[in-house]
Amino acid sequence: MSLYLGAIADDYTGASDLASTLAGNGLRVVQTIGVPPDGIDLPEVDAVVIALKSRSIPADIAVRQSLAADAWLRSKGAAHVLFKICSTFDSTAQGNIGPVTDALAAPYLAMPIVCPAFPRNRRTVYQGHLFVGSDRLDESPMKDHPVTPMRDSSLPRLMRAQSRRAVGTLSLAVIRAGDDVVRTELSRLRQAGCGSVIADAVTDADLEVLGRVALDDAVSTGASGMGLGLARAMVVGRGGLGTPEPARAPDDLRGSLVLAGSCSIATLEQLDLAEREWPVLRLGAEELMAGTTSVKAVVDWARRHLADGPAFVATSASPDRVAALQAAHGAQQVSALLEDTLAEIAAQLASEGLSRLIVAGGETSGAVVDRLGIEAFLIGRELAPGVPMLHALGRRYANLRLVLKSGNFGGPGFFTEAIIAE
Ligand SMILES: Nc1ncnc2c1ncn2[C@@H]1O[C@H](COP(=O)(O)OP(=O)(O)O)[C@@H](O)[C@H]1O
Ligand SMILES: O=C(O)[C@@H](O)C(=O)COP(=O)(O)O
Q1: What are the pLDDT digits (tens) for 327-342?
Q2: Which ligand has the minimum distance to the alpha carbon of residue 267?
């Protein structure tokens, strides 16, 4: 295998978002869960996205895991590695975007371009500020995220708090002046001692400039928009690579399990709509803690419904309920309990045979996929921007299709679309 592009994603839904974007822009892609074990049999592809669950773990562990992933990707020929972060820059003052970016750049004396813009999902960066639709990041629903509440929209400020190196900026005006002007500005910033550069981007055309220029260096950091820019630059530069996976025959709807742990507004709306059509069990942390419900009871309920069609289990709750629960029991404890519970439900039902497993929420998807022990996926067709159909590789779950949806992604009817899609 000789890779054109390597990527390291800090969560699993982010990885499939990126993999889908790369596939949609002409690259053949595999997503692996963690660094692939020796001897893994992967198809011949242009890009590998290694999914880590490193967004909210201690920074030193995130750095160690990312460097191991980088070493594997470079050993397979990747000259450029993209560190895939969230398009809403999910992180804290401790990291992990800054520490991981610094560590990946150091061996190559790289000065990564950092840009979380993803215009297809309405994430744009202007004057260094990140916007979610028309809201600044700190005024968007991300301000209430259960794990990484984002209370500032200034990317240079957020990055400076996390990085040991000086952080430069690349304005939209410079980007729109074209590749040569950008290259001149980057070399000026490098001479000024910058270790990374926050770039504006509002449209895909801006990201195409960034993608072309980023390929001069060994590392970049960004969301799927950066992936789009890199993929387009590679496909043009190398005269067309691979084709996306073909669609498959329609599935029987039986055995389609949906698990939702995301509390993002988009997921809450999607669940409300799905509830009109499909059986949805709302699982409360209070009931689990009080012992008035159990994994066994939920599995029994789901098994009955899965025999006829889809079944949903959701822990998702509104920001005020999340805040109350966290205040009473501790944020990490509640997250761990709910993630473990959904993962255990998935494991028990998958061992009996599921046709499709749809998970909403990045941390939640990480917990579920880890518990199932799936090592890699082939990226299938895109169901919504940033959300592909995943075909599990390996014998254990050979016929299982998964959908790992970032909490904020997908339109209101996403769940039904994902259930009935080919
Ligand atoms: N009712 C709830 N109260 C508090 N936290 C919750 C609740 N339901 C889910 N969570 C936790 O919120 C977090 C949601 O994060 P994640 O799964 O990454 O979703 P998203 O993709 O929307 O960020 C998870 O850790 C999950 O366990
Ligand atoms: O870039 C994005 O927004 C997504 O790919 C992503 O990383 C989302 O993370 P979660 O909301 O935790 O799924």
Answers
A1: 999 999 999 999 999 9
A2: 1
